[in-house]
């Protein structure tokens, strides 16, 4: 990473009206993380020492999320929405302190990569006063056009202000811009608002720097990276691009995805090598899948670890705190929450395991429920190594089943069971030979007699 210091300013004062949402637009999620979280993370990943976020009025939820994501990030309020230059100037105290590079990012543009930003920083390191990331737009309508003369970027013309010749340019401003820290305050201070929208355009800094004889460069990136999200359809498109990247990375890392287009990752999902993921699997945040594990179809995982060669699903739900050790098996219609399933243990059918430990090699029979909640508090169940829990048992926590113990099927276990003991807690069987036949015969006779005419 460059030894130059870096400040990232993220513009997030946009109103979310086109999202039809009560929430700030940049709080909407891509890959289970708020868009603004992606951008803050991008700033951290390029080694920016400081981040500043420009928010609009009434942004308490947004401020809280920024504080949670990056406690050191400064937050500035743009009280009136007077344009992108005006927004950056709201963060002027951040660049009052000396800094080499200032990068401007948008909070609603979550797919920009560190590699692309490295190009901007390289241009600044090479002496550019302003460096702008552009892309060849499939449809340039609405974007600012990058006007170049012999390798120098001489102007950015906003669509509304462009003439016909300029509108034919397909090379467009992504919005990502870099400024030399020593110049930004001066350049921005000279931007006016004499344009079609009556706004202070950040993009005007390009012509001003040119007038000073400064070096100004346009760099090229991929249009997909610069997708800005203004409505729910664009949010879904950003999600799709994000997922395609994640699926490719998982496969690159040695995972088999039988139908990659049906597997959904979170921003932080970690998938090892020789992992197989069957179709229709969803990963929420905080999942680690270790080498050789198998995630079968229609499973939902969040906040959990799947150990080496463990098997999950089909139709399993692993909730936060589920920790499956090596070779553990969690089968169909099983839900695991805040529990460890130790090495080689099996929980194969129709079971709820919450606030529990399932010891190594234990077998939990179909339909077992850990009754962990009494309506007020949560209680623990401890199942020892090699224990066998018969089907349809209810383990009423707090309860401890010793190593190697057997719990008979259908038990409601309210007491601890010592190691290697048998515990059965159910009614005694009652068998009466011939009773059913006699019963039917009697009832039929009663019915026949009642139906006879008197
Ligand atoms: C901007 C660029 C345009 C570029 C396009 C890329 C300018 C003048 N134009 O146009 O060249 O092609 O982005 O998508 O910069 N914002 C604030 N406060 C403001 C105004 C904007 O925070 O007062 C934020 C918005 O929330 C948004 C970003 O700045 O994240 C861009 O603003 P927007 O109004 O969408 O600019 P565009 O017209 O799309
Ligand atoms: Ca925009």
Describe the structure.
With 454 residues, the chain is of the alpha/beta class. The N and C termini lie far apart (104 Å). The mean pLDDT is 97. Bound molecules: uridine-diphosphate-N-acetylglucosamine (UD1) and calcium ion (CA). Uridine-diphosphate-N-acetylglucosamine is lined by residues 11, 13-14, 54, 78, 81-84, 86-87, 106-108, 143-144, 156, 158, 172-175, 201-203, 228.
In terms of DSSP E residues, the strand content is 25-35%
Rg from Cα? 31 Å
Uncertain stretches: none
The CATH superfamily title of the largest domain = Spore Coat Polysaccharide Biosynthesis Protein SpsA, Chain A
Total helix count?
Answer: 10
The total number of structural domains is 2
Straight-line distance between termini: 104 Å
State the CATH architecture of the largest domain. Answer: Alpha-Beta Complex
The secondary-structure class comes to alpha/beta
Strand order of the largest sheet: 12-15-18-21-24-27-30-33-36-38
Write the layout of secondary structure elements.
Blueprint lengths: L5 E7 L16 E2 L2 E2 H11 L4 E6 L4 H10 L4 E4 L6 H7 L1 H5 L4 E6 L7 H12 L4 E7 L8 E5 L2 E6 L6 H4 L3 E10 L3 H6 L15 H7 L4 E5 L11 H21 L3 E2 L5 E2 L5 E2 L4 E2 L3 E3 L4 E2 L4 E2 L4 E2 L3 E2 L4 E2 L3 E3 L4 E2 L4 E4 L1 E4 L2 E2 L4 E4 L2 E3 L1 E3 L4 E2 L4 E3 L9 E3 L4 E2 L4 E3 L2 E3 L4 E2 L4 E2 L8 E2 L11 H17 L3
Parallel strand pairs: 1-4, 1-6, 4-5, 7-11, 12-15, 13-16, 14-17, 15-18, 16-19, 17-20, 18-21, 19-22, 20-23, 21-24, 22-25, 23-26, 24-27, 25-28, 26-29, 27-30, 29-32, 30-33, 31-34, 32-35, 33-36, 34-37, 36-38
Antiparallel strand pairs: 2-3, 6-10, 7-10, 8-9
The chain binds uridine-diphosphate-N-acetylglucosamine (UD1) and calcium ion (CA).
The site of uridine-diphosphate-N-acetylglucosamine has 26 residues, from helix 3 and strand 10.
